[in-house]
Amino acid sequence: GPARYELHIPPQPRLLIAGGGHIGQAVARHSLRLDFETTLFDDRADLLERFAPEGCQRASGEIAEALAAADIDAETYCVIVTRGHRHDAQALAAVIDRGARYVGMIGSKRKVLLVRRELLERGVCEGSLDAVHAPIGVDIGSVTGEEIALSIAAELVQVREQRGRVKVDGPHSEGEA
Q: Can you spell out the DSSP letters for 82-130?
């Protein structure tokens, strides 16, 4: 008899990038080509207007507040690449423990430790902080902003592909679920 196949296509992953500077812009360019629905967050509306890549959504205003209001679920990836330690800590506090598939923060080992200490003092649990990818990106020896963005994009793909490929079920006979 006739057979039926089912194709299971996961939803398009969403990438929230906190920081619209040169690294955030470069990550956005890569992520759009890698099929992420991408939103760039920054408190400098003029920067977003002038430099956000075409196809990228923009969220201007206080970064932590905008991130706190954003929908985050298991198909959400959060990249924190703001212009400073204070903004990074606030952005991380806004997204941590909200069910994102990936949370990563740029920074030196020293900065990562400072942010970690600050969030521990604010009551964030250590296990949640252990799950944050920091420093962010695949270690490819990157030096330039574009190379750093490439290493971040590579890590996003690595995490995304851990969920597995699109699955086809079948063949199913008529009347079989």
A: -SSHHHHHHHHHHHTTS--SEEEE---HHHHHHHHHHHHHTT--HHHHH
* Structure tokens, 95: 């997204």
Q: Closest Cα partner for 100 from 172, 26, 35, 13? A: 13
pLDDT tens digits, one per residue of 102-150: 999 999 889 999 999 999 999 999 999 999 999 899 999 999 999 999 9
pLDDT tens digits along 43-96: 999 999 999 999 999 999 999 999 999 999 999 999 999 998 889 999 999 999
Q: Where are the beta strands (DSSP E) in the chain?
A: 3-8, 14-18, 37-42, 57-60, 76-80, 102-105, 167-173
Residue 149: left (phi > 0), alpha (psi -120 to 50), or beta? alpha
